[in-house]
Amino acid sequence: MKIFNKKLLKFSAVCMLIIAVAIANTACGNTSDSSKSSEKKESKTELIILAAASLTDACNELKEMYEKEHEDIKLTFSYQSSGALQAQIEEGAPADVFFSAATTQMDALTEGGFVEKDDVKKLLENKIVLVTPAEGDEKISDFKDVTGKDVSLIGLGDPDSVPAGQYAKTVFENMGIWDKVSKKANFGTDVRAVLTWVEEGEVSCGVVYATDAYTTDKVKIVAEAPEGTCDKVYYPVAALKGSEHKTEADEVSEFFGSQEALKVFEKYGFTHV
Question: Which of 26, 185, 191, 226 has CA atoms 20 to 30 A from the CA of 234?
Answer without folding.
Answer: 185
